[in-house]
């Protein structure tokens, strides 16, 4: 297997981006793998690694999986319920990138998409607000508008852009490797 698209997803948002990246890979030598199944990626050269953001980074299972990425070229992507263009989102993708680098993987690019927040979590945040809980996650009407806005994310456009970025960075990485081989 040359390409492994590996994802950690609880409610399907990250899987949707992973599927789009996988579908657009032209080579036959590819696999779409759920990290919860602890997939074997020994033969993979290029790994697209996706995770849902859990407390500003990959969850424990994704972190454990990342330790196996030594020597791979890795494209990192994530989905999260807060704004994709926020400092929080940037920190959440950087956390994954840093872990890949610490594991000995080479990061060739990254992508952040918005994802819907699960209705059970919204309900929990509403319960917090109703019980007067001062937790910063407690529901407010303003937050409700954001949840509503993102309820159909990641969109087709986000998935397409994630895939386009992946393709471009793999191509660029191949070209750089070829250039290095000449010297
Ligand atoms: C346990 C847990 C922790 C989360 N922590 C964050 C967070 O720190 N920041 C954020 O923006 N979203 C957070 N989320 C929301 C998810 O990252 C977001 O809804 C994501 O798109 C879900 O992806 P999935 O459908 O692939 O599971 C959290 C969700 C869960 C279940």
UniProtKB/TrEMBL annotation:
<dbReference type="InterPro" id="IPR029039">
    <property type="entry name" value="Flavoprotein-like_sf"/>
</dbReference>
<dbReference type="InterPro" id="IPR008254">
    <property type="entry name" value="Flavodoxin/NO_synth"/>
</dbReference>
<feature type="domain" description="Flavodoxin-like">
    <location>
        <begin position="5"/>
        <end position="165"/>
    </location>
</feature>
<dbReference type="Pfam" id="PF12641">
    <property type="entry name" value="Flavodoxin_3"/>
</dbReference>
<protein>
    <submittedName>
        <fullName>Flavodoxin family protein</fullName>
    </submittedName>
</protein>
């Amino acid at each position: 297997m040359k390409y492994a698209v590996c994802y950690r997803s609880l409610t399907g948002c990250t899987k949707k981006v992973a599927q789009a990246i996988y579908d657009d890979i032209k080579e036959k030598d590819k696999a779409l793998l759920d990290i919860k199944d602890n997939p074997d990626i020994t033969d993979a050269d290029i790994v697209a690694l996706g995770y849902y953001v859990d407390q500003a980074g990959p969850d424990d299972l994704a972190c454990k999986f990342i330790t196996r990425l030594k020597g791979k070229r890795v494209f990192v992507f994530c989905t999260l319920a807060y704004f994709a263009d926020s400092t929080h989102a940037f920190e959440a993708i950087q956390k994954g990138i840093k872990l890949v680098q610490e594991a000995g993987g080479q990061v060739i690019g990254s992508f952040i998409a918005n994802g819907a927040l699960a209705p059970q979590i919204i309900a929990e945040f509403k319960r917090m607000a109703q019980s007067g809980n001062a937790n910063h996650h407690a529901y407010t009407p303003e937050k409700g508008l954001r949840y509503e806005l993102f309820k159909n994310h990641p969109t087709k456009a986000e998935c397409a852009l994630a895939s386009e970025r992946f393709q471009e960075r793999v191509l660029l990485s191949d070209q750089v490797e070829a250039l290095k081989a000449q010297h």
